[in-house]
Design a protein that fits this description.
- With 121 residues, the chain is mainly β.
- The chain has one domain: Alpha-Beta Complex (tt1808, chain A), CATH 3.90.1570.10.
- Helix content is 10%, strand content 36%.
- It has 1 helix and 10 strands.
- The strands form 3 sheets. It has a 5-stranded mixed β-sheet with strand order 3-5-6-7-8, covered by helices on one side. The chain has a 3-stranded mixed β-sheet with strand order 2-1-4, covered by helices on one side.
- The longest helix has 12 residues.
- The mean pLDDT is 91.
Length: 121
């Protein structure tokens, strides 16, 4: 199965998340989403500010979004931003265990996205 690039429309702006999760089935021809429930980005040196600031501002404007996850490139670590039921966002850092996204009903062992990778000590 081919991997297809999905884009997310936020008002007039288009973003291309590294990974996007949405509720419900998708038509095979769908390439633009408006209803993401979780987004994963892997910041690099070149994209860190965009991923941590600019995209965070854009993504929090998506009413359906419940989780925004930044997966680090140089270590098994993640920052998880979650929308609380009242609409406020909370952040937490993880270096082990599982990423639990309750608003999305998704649990991912943090080590899974890093399977097969090694990092310098």
């Amino acid at each position: 199965m081919a991997m297809l690039e999905m884009r997310l429309r936020i008002g007039a702006r288009i973003r291309y998340p590294d990974v996007v999760v949405c509720a419900g089935p998708l038509d095979q021809t769908t390439r633009t989403l408006t209803d993401a429930t979780a987004i994963f980005e892997v910041p690099s040196d070149d994209t860190a500010t965009t991923d941590r600031v600019d995209k965070m501002i854009d993504y929090t404007a998506v009413p359906s979004l419940r989780a925004y996850v930044l997966l680090e490139q140089t270590a098994v670590a993640a920052t998880l931003f979650q929308r609380e039921p009242g609409g406020a966002w909370i952040a937490g850092a993880q270096t082990g265990g599982a990423l639990i996204l309750p608003g999305v009903d998704l649990t991912i062992p943090l080590a899974d996205p890093y399977h097969g990778l090694t990092f310098p000590a």
